[in-house]
Backbone:
């Protein structure tokens, strides 16, 4: 009952935020509201028992996509132009579609109904089989990494393609010097705190990476947190210093290496006489084999994701800083 | 866990809730950015700290408390750093505080 | 009893949201985001205890770190824009 | 009267999801600005996740991480499905 209340209030707040986002003109304000929207929806996911989704949404929505959106707004304009005419046609389309969809919900099983068709078929099997065959407490991880390993491979490939696409479109401009922005030098508090936090964030990323079998987490989230740590460092000390830790060339190699680790696990299991991505073969004991396989592919996912996000960030920021000196 | 710890944890939780409420009212009602910053720092430090302390007492000696201590540790460093950076950015952007002009 | 605390947190989130809607300056909005971030951490922690699965505190930990980094990112971008708006003043270190 | 209340509460999640979805859709089709369009897509996408996850919730269930003391778990498959596309917006 209490959860229902929190759920309903959070949904109401989300709706208000959605309307405000549509109405506002200033793009920076809209970006801030999107960040709040993402935080709210992540807490809603926790209420609705989807902890893995909540972790991903927190790391992606509130962190990386806000930062990237800000970088985009910084490269383009801040203010949205007023529309020239009244949007009557879109309004009509939207209201009609919405009404049809709401009419469609009238036949749906009610929220929280344990006898809904969705709960009767595949899901109970996964819940029963996971403890015996895979031995991993987190069923979402076992579904993602083991039962549906092919899907996750496809997903990693998509992320890799995205990274390659950004690389091709934005490219990367090398910088002649370590531009030490004077105002960065002034932010003493930020720099000290960053020094304190940077190792802790990386440590926490490793925890999320290898604890994903037992709690919420996994390779993707860990990769994002890892990249966020480096982005924090770049914000406090400038991009040049980060590139000394993790140069661009290394990132490109990492991006490929993650995908190759994933595929390599599949090929290894084929060489040992199983099917592609059949982890049972990897060790003498099937459960140990599953553990090993899941750990390795999660590692591959983590490496690729971290590299791709950092590549996107480098691409955006190296542009942003390059522009002003050209007209001086 | 004794009843005394239980009561103490509830005192902490409800006290934290009071501070959060005060901070929320402050954010809505205070007249300009700098005073609102002050209101947020009330809920960021005392409010969050007391709520987390109450939860720690509920958790007892376990992994849960270790994680809560970590969250607390992160919060007491990040909160003031963010507020400080925010205030400095606003000052540099020459945001004027609201001042009472009347003669004393 | 946890419900009392979580309702208070929800009220505070609503206040922060309202400030983000109204906020005359951008700094008010950043402040609101920062506040909502802290409150989200608290509500996730309290929810973990309410549903008797407190091991989900990992999520709260991620929130603390991420919301800090995004606040700093916002401020850095603004600072950059401000110097640009002031006529692209680049200091001696940038020459 | 009680039945109506029950029905409204049972479908409330879906209705809000549809309103959010339409908000995002409107932003995509009515606003010329590209950043605004992307934010519209973001709203739309999140609403789809909420739809999935609301369907996966079971009354009295907890998150699908096997532990002692918990009997009912919410549907893990839907969560896996929802946490897969959440990763694309970065691209």
Residues:
């Amino acid at each position: 009952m209490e959860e229902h209340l929190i759920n309903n209030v959070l949904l109401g707040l989300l709706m208000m935020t959605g309307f405000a986002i549509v109405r506002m003109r200033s793009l920076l304000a809209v970006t801030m509201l999107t960040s709040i929207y993402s935080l709210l929806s992540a807490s809603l996911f926790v209420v609705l028992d989807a902890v893995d989704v909540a972790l991903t949404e927190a790391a992606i929505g509130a962190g990386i996509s806000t930062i990237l959106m800000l970088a985009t707004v910084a490269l383009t304009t801040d203010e949205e132009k007023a529309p020239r005419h009244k949007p009557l046609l879109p309004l009509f389309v939207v209201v009609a579609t919405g009404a049809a969809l709401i009419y469609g919900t009238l036949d749906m099983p009610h929220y929280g109904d344990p006898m809904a068709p969705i709960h009767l078929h595949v899901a109970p099997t996964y819940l029963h089989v996971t403890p015996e065959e895979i031995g991993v407490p987190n069923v979402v991880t076992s579904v993602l990494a083991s039962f549906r390993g092919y899907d996750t491979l496809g997903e990693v490939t998509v992320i890799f393609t995205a990274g390659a696409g950004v690389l091709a479109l934005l490219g990367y401009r090398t910088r002649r010097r370590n531009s030490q922005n004077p105002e960065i030098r002034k932010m003493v508090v930020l720099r000290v705190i960053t020094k304190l936090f940077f190792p802790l964030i990386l440590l926490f990323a490793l925890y999320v990476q290898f604890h994903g079998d037992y709690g919420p987490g996994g390779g993707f989230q860990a990769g994002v947190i890892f990249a966020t740590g480096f982005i924090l460092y770049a914000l406090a000390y400038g991009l040049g210093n980060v590139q000394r830790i993790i140069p661009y060339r290394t990132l490109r190699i990492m991006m490929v290496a993650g995908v190759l680790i994933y595929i390599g696990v599949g090929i290894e299991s084929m060489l040992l006489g199983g099917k592609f991505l059949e982890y049972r073969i990897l060790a003498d004991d099937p459960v140990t084999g599953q553990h090993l396989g899941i750990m390795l592919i999660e590692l591959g996912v983590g490496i690729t994701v971290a590299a791709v996000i950092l590549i996107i960030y480098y691409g955006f920021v190296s542009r942003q800083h390059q522009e002003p000196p050209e007209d001086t | 866990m004794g009843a005394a710890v239980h009561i103490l944890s509830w005192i902490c939780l409800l006290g934290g809730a009071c501070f959060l409420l005060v901070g929320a009212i402050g954010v809505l009602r205070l007249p300009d950015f700098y005073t609102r910053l002050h209101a947020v720092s009330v809920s960021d430090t005392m409010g969050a700290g007391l709520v987390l302390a109450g939860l720690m007492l509920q958790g007892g000696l376990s992994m849960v408390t270790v994680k809560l201590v970590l969250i607390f540790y992160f919060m007491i460093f990040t909160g003031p750093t963010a507020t400080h950076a925010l205030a400095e950015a606003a000052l540099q952007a020459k945001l004027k505080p609201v001042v009472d002009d009347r003669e004393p | 009893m946890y419900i009392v605390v979580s309702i208070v947190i929800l009220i505070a989130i609503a206040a922060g949201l309202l400030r983000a809607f109204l906020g005359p300056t951008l700094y008010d909005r950043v402040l609101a985001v920062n506040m909502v971030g802290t409150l989200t951490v608290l509500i996730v922690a309290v929810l973990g205890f309410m549903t008797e699965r407190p091991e989900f505190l990992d999520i709260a930990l991620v929130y603390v770190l991420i919301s800090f980094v995004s606040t700093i990112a916002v401020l850095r971008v603004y600072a950059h824009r401000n110097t640009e708006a002031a006529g692209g003043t680049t200091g001696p270190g940038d020459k | 009267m009680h039945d109506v209340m029950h029905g409204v509460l049972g479908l409330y999640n879906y209705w809000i999801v549809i309103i959010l979805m339409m908000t995002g859709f409107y932003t995509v089709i009515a606003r010329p600005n590209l950043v605004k369009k992307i934010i519209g897509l973001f709203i739309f996408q999140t609403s789809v996740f909420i739809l999935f996850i609301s369907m996966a919730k079971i009354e009295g269930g907890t998150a699908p991480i096997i532990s002692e003391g918990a009997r009912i778990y919410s549907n893990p498959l839907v969560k896996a499905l929802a946490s897969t596309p959440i990763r694309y917006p970065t691209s």
Q: What stands out?
A: Residues 1-80 of chain A form a domain with the Four Helix Bundle (Hemerythrin (Met), subunit A) fold (CATH 1.20.120.1200). Residues 323-328 of chain A have pLDDT under 50 and may be disordered. The radius of gyration of chain A is 23 Å.
